[in-house]
Amino acid sequence: MTGIGGGVELGAQAARSRALAVLRVRSRALAVALLPAAVAVILLAGGSTGHLVGGGWDAARWAVSVLALLVLAATAAVALVVARARPAVTPTVAVAEESAPDLYRMVRDLADRLDVPAPSAIALTPDCDSWLEDRTHPAHGPPPARDHDDLSDPVGPARRRSAAAPVLVIGSPFLWWMRVGELRAVLAPVVAGTGPAAHPDIAAARRFIRGLDAAVAATSTDGRGPLARAARGGIGGVSRLLLRGCRVHAAEMERGVAAAAAERAQAVDYGLRIVAQEQVGLAYAGWDRLLTRVALPAWRMGRWPSRLDVGVVAALTELSRRDRLAEGFASRLGERPACDLLEEPGLMDEAVSLLAARLFHGGPAETGPDWAPVGWEEYPEEVVDRAWRTDAARLHRVLDTLGVRRAAEGAAPGTDGPTLSRVLDHLTTTPAEAPVPARDPAADADPDATPDPDATPDPDATPGTAHHATPGTGTATPDDQATSDPQAATASDPSDPQAATTPGPQPLTTPDDQPADAPAAPGSADHSDDGNGTEDDDDDLAGTTPRGAALAAGLSAQLAREEARTQALASGTAPPPPGTTTGPAATGTALWDDRALPLLPLQPPRTGREILTAHITAMVCCAAMDTAGATPGLDWLDGPTLLVDGARRADLAPHVRSLVETGDPAPLRAWLSDLGVRPEKPVRLV
Question: Which residues pair with 644 in a beta bridge?
Fold first, then answer.
């Protein structure tokens, strides 16, 4: 215990010294602002006493006095903006004490064992992380009311001290996947951070940094006129300058706070620390996989899965069944899950699921005709089947735009509908045709280049248009954002020598990974959008056939138009007024800027090749369902899947790639024949 106490004291002293350094930056800025006023006072006093007389001194007095007034006015403006700017608040689902008394009791007991103030409230976030967040700014509302009499309640003084304590934000996947003991071990170093947060110097330094960061965000918007823009630019420039001066000290202060909290938490649930950290890493991977493979296709269809946290448990349980390395995870399911600490976990899961759809996809804040919840038992029919048929319908609309025949000459009557044969025949490459060559800058400059007549895209299409536009996720610069949430440093436990490193969200690896039947293959792209969308798509389609490139361009343009309409409708949806409740608890939409959604996009835009492959895969799946008795299904780790006689088929992808890249339909036709699919039969579309 002596060693632990010494480590806590060292970390706390380091944090306090850095907090004082931050406050010295504030004091120096104030001193610089008051310097012209001090000089003006000296000059005025010298003139009144007869010491500094003469024309030169009179001119100096006037000049310095005017300068002092201007500097004081500018300082007052900066101070006013910093004081009134609303610091950023993480979107969360508030957990009232009545809806989770056991959870509050566990957190308070943990705070008592750590000898630190208890958090003022608890909230859930749709992410795999936990941290403390200060919401004492007046814009965040009053602290939660206390119903107990401090004189009669034995823990009254502690609760009174925690009225200004930060809010404990818990990642919702932790509650559903972890056991109660594991959650307690994970939260120990986080709750221990309330001790340093109560220190006056650290609290003042954090308020100063949050105010500067909020001021930068508030002044980043364009003003209504030149004068307003100039004023905003000046205040924002001063705020950025102060932030840069505090950045190193603030980072070291948070490291000291995290080190002190980790050392203090060593005495609590020491034996569960390593096991709990392993479960944190597993939850990260399962949550990422569920969002990108399962939730994202549903969100694109205007449906939001209402039990995402339950899906995490199902996905990780499926992993334990498939992967021999995860056999030990299934034995944990017999212990009490942490979600039992909630009175109504189903309603809380629904609220978190809706918030996740809003943050990661940009969906509306409320349920409507085009934005309805979907249960896991309805997912195959309501999401997978609809998604495939919608993509197949879009594919045939683009083929109509390109002038592709509905049926071959001499075909039997009744075969002029939307058939798979139409797609295969159009993409089949003849010996005279060659794949699209790699991008040649010299060819781009050739004014006499003649385009292929079969590759004429939609007149309204814009080749290379990306499917998903990624809006900005913030208003501050990277330098300013480095200290935007200083208390988040206590979320993890990097200073704990007994804790395993928590990995970021990474896809899981399973024996039959990368399914061939997922229509959108979300999360599989490994590229970034560098602003040159057309060149990127040209490079991506290099090696495909001319007809495939034209079809991909038409599909990309059509998707871009559809998404633009969807985003326009979503932006017109007004958020609920402050104080209202979405689901079982208020999501706090009044405390964060939801004008640029999604705030946390899951993946970069899909390329033309990915879009074309997804649409052809969807058409093949529709044909298999309508002519061979296949059914849509849900795989917890890979998302939408095609089931044949109840078994998952994951061998379609290479055959579709052969058609897209080389124009050779033979492998795909052999796969269809083996399955009993009749490509000449029309399919049902949405």
Answer: 647
